[in-house]
Amino acid sequence: MTEPLLKITDLEVSYATRAGLVKAVDKVSLEVQRGETLGLVGESGCGKSTLGFSILRLVRPPGEITGGQIIFNGEDLLQKTEQEMRTIRGKRIAMIFQDPMTCLNPLQRIDDHFIETVRTHEKAVSAQEARQKAAELVDRLGIIADRLTDYPHQLSGGMRQRIMIGLALILNSELIIADEPTTSLDVIVEAQILDLMKELKASFELSMILITHNMGIVAELADRIAVMYAGKLMEVASAVELYDKPLHPYTQGLLRSIPNISLDSQKLETMPGSPPDLIEPPPGCRFHPRCPHVMDKCHTYEPIMKEVEDGHRVACWLY
Amino acid sequence: MNDNLVEVRDLKKWFPVQTSFIETLMTRRLDYVRAVDGVSFDIKRGEVFGLAGESGSGKTTTGRLILRLIEPTQGHIIFNGQDIVALNSKQMRELRRQMQIIFQDPYASLNPRMKIGDGIGHALEIHGIARGEDKRERVITIMEKVGLTPAATLYEKYPHQLSGGQRQRAVIARALILTPELIVADEPIAMADVSVRALLLELMIRLKEEFGLTYLFITHDLATAKYICDRIAIMYLGRIVEMGPLKEVYGHAGHPYTQALLAAVPVPDPHFRRTAALPRGEIPNPVNPPSGCRFHPRCPVAIEICSQEEPELVQIADSHYAACHLLTR
User: Fold this and answer.
1) Tens of pLDDT along A189-205?
2) What is the ipTM of this complex?
3) Which of residues 96-125 of A touch B (CB under 8 A)?
4) Which range has the worst mean pLDDT, A133-142, A214-223, B279-288, B304-313?
5) CATH number of the domain at A1-84+224-280+310-319, please?
6) Looking at the predicted structure, is the pLDDT value of residue B19 above 90?
7) Model's pTM, two decimal places?
8) What is the per-residue pLDDT for B256?
């Protein structure tokens, strides 16, 4: 098997708060292969976005990466200087954020966003060439090139998100991190953007980390899925395997409790309790207070990630 | 007694568009956002009536109009046989004991400096129903009903000390404390964690049975609506495009917009592949809605008449209505 594009080992990200140290990401190990889309799912506060930001070393104080390794293409990103990171962000690893309105500069025309992105990293390219490149790209994203002279507020929400995707694609980044890329959109536009991303995934052979809380969206886009809960990685498997045969009780509960539009499934199962406070996480397995299969040792010992089947890893004492 | 708790007739809310002083002088014309533009529906006693649509469809405005939290531009709202549009503010305050609202964001709707228990019981004091020990008892009872336990401990907490799910339960408890007949629930579970949503939904269904409530359930999420609504109305740009029993609307959607909305919902199943074509573009500007059927510029099956005449809501099956020219040809 070839070297993965991204290999995260025992990553720890902590936030110093007045009440104590909060480990938002706690010893998480993950890989992203070339050309694959990894879905990173979990509820708010589970650490999925923090994990995404830490790959780009964009965790803001009081947050800090306190341990682990992030190997990208054979290089440890945690050993890089800030100067070196700048040549990686946007160029080799690009990010698509949730809310395009706060990511686009309201005083800058759309084409200037593209020109700035390209010329920051590729100084030899002229503004004219960069604009030409942007025009060809946005055309593939379903936007007429004339709109490049518009300001962000003149575009609709869906168009703005297409522009964000364009900005992430224009430098042919090796890895794209998409953090809730469709959450601020209405359902029909969301479906349009998902269709677009599916198409781009194939035509650009994208390697992507898709961060979302929506189990429907990962089902549509991801090849492999990692489930996080309270800062911990709970389960990793191929998308089909995870939905067909979820192993972790949290994944099982989550899949049973999400509303489904199909009229056949009428019953919604519930999960007791709510996600824990990370200042004082439960001892042992963090899911044990809500787990229907809880055993004695779950209260005291933290389960170790185990490969139960080929490519299917789970952190649970049941296995 | 009438079957209908609420009857809404030709309700309109036009918000004036802010223009600069100079513009007003130059054009002498006021533009309006037609947030709600002539909707009529009934909410039957004891049912959950859903109002669904994308942002900007007017569903939230409709919910607020029914409580008269904002004043309608035109139309009638009949609550328990009485037209409430004509009531003065004192009469209206009296009537609001019977109609309560649950907002989407429990952070924003709980006073951060008021203890949870006092927040829930505040309405009892405002309406002069109970105070002191009596209030406390009533609050504790309702907190137990919504699963805010141990109630005596949580009574003393402040909103920031509670989890998201608990806060939303507090908001539900506050809506229930006056034992209203109608609850307008505006995206009540959208802010909650995914694993908590199902529990809140179940709670709302249980409370409805126990207290004999009627809900107006406002949501953008058709998958969630499926589990709670008896009947549903789909809104688009201030108009109802389809309305009927939930199973009927989901199973035999008549309007192309409803069909598109249903098809666009992401399905949590990696084997599933969406086949239906999605409509083009996005919701147009409600200041100048398209002529004829408001959906026609995006409609995959639009015909000539669609851009000329606005279709009426007509019955297409038993108590199932849709507004589309293709259904009446």
Assistant:
1) 889 889 889 988 888 88
2) 0.84
3) none
4) B279-288
5) 3.40.50.300
6) no
7) 0.88
8) 94
Q: Determine the pLDDT at residue B279.
A: 85
Contacts of B180 (CB under 8 A, 6+ apart): B97, B98, B99, B100, B213
Which A residues 274-303 touch B at CB under 8 Å? Answer: 274-275, 277, 290
Task: Pick the residue from chain A with its C-alpha nearest to B271.
Answer: A240
Yes or no, beta carbons of A261 and B226 under 8 Å apart: yes
Band of residue B1 on the pLDDT scale cut at 50, 70, 90: low
Helix (H, G, I), strand (E, B) or coil at A68: strand
pLDDT tens digits, B235-262: 999 999 999 999 999 999 999 999 999 9
Please indicate if any CB of chain A lies within 8 Å of the CB of B28.
Answer: no
Report whether pLDDT(A39) > 90. yes
H or E element, residue A237: strand A232-238
**Pairwise CB contact (< 8 Å): B265 & A216:** yes
User: Shortest CB distance from A257 goes to which of B165, B195, B250?
Assistant: B195
Q: How far apart are CA B277 and CA A50, in angstroms?
A: 36
CATH 3.30.450.40 for the A90-222 domain, yes or no: no
Q: Which residues contact A240 (CB under 8 A, 6 or more apart)?
A: B270, B271
Choose among A309, B245, A250: nearest CA to B254. B245
Whether B195 and A271 lie within 8 Å, measured CB to CB: yes
Residue corresponding to tokens 């700035």: A116
- What is the distance in angstroms between the Cα of A159 and the nearest Cα belonging to chain B? 9
Interface of A with B in 174-193 (CB under 8 A): 186-192
Q: Which of B202, B247, B269, B275 to mutate to test the interface with A (most CBs of A within 10 A)?
A: B269
- Tell me the per-residue pLDDT of A49-92, one tens digit each, with 9 for 90 and over: 999 999 999 988 888 999 999 999 999 999 999 999 999 998 89
Domain span(s) for CATH 3.40.50.300 in chain A: 1-84+224-280+310-319, 90-222
- Minimum CA–CA partner of A250 in chain B: B195
**Edge-to-edge strands of the sheet including A224-229?**
A93-96, A175-179, A208-212, A37-41, A224-229, A232-238, A312-314, A306-309
Whether residue B198 and residue A271 make contact (CB cut-off 8 A), yes or no, is: yes
What pLDDT was estimated at residue A115? 94
| From A54-58, A144-148, B190-194, B319-323, the region with the lowest mean pLDDT | B190-194
CB contacts, 8 Å: B226 with chain A: 259-261, 263
Nearest CA-CA partner of B41 in B7, B12, B66: B7
Which of A173, A176, A170, A185 minimizes the C-alpha distance to A37?
A176
